[in-house]
Amino acid sequence: MPVNTCIGAALAARCQMTLARLQPLSDTPAMEIRTHTTPLYTSMFRADDTLIANPHLYGAPASDNPAIVIKRDDAPDLWNDHQLAFERVWNTARPIPTQP
């Protein structure tokens, strides 16, 4: 089976598991969880002035790749580049439904 097929199936399952775990937090004030359909190059997670970027190297699961912690004040140029990419995806993403 091609590597991408294995990673694709595993990634889909991982996304579903993560959404199930995050669902109870979906109605937390000042927190928003969204999903998107853009190609996956880097997973990015942002809270206030900290962004964690996890680049995806071809043929390897995200857990085998580095997670880079970028703080706005420590690396402003790197922060701005990643923040712009994050915003482009965020603006096309859809919020997950809140918990009933």
Could you explain the architecture of this structure?
- The chain has 100 residues and is α+β, with helices and mostly antiparallel strands.
- The protein has one domain (5-95).
- Helices cover 35% and strands 20% of the residues.
- It is built from two helices and five strands, in the order αββββαβ.
- It has helices at residues 3-22, 76-90; strands spanning 34-35, 42-47, 50-55, 68-71, 94-95.
- It is globular and about 35 Å long.
- Residues 1-5 have low confidence and may be disordered.
Overall radius of gyration = 15 Å
Poorly predicted segments: 1-5
> What sequence of helices (H) and strands (E) makes up the elements?
HEEEEHE
Number of DSSP strands? 5
Tell me the strand percentage band: 15-25%
Trace the largest sheet across and list its strands: 2-3-4
Largest sheet: 3 strands, antiparallel
Distance between the termini: 40 Å
Helix and strand layout, with pairings?
Blueprint: H1 3-22, E1 34-35, E2 42-47, E3 50-55, E4 68-71, H2 76-90, E5 94-95
Antiparallel strand pairs: 1-5, 2-3, 3-4
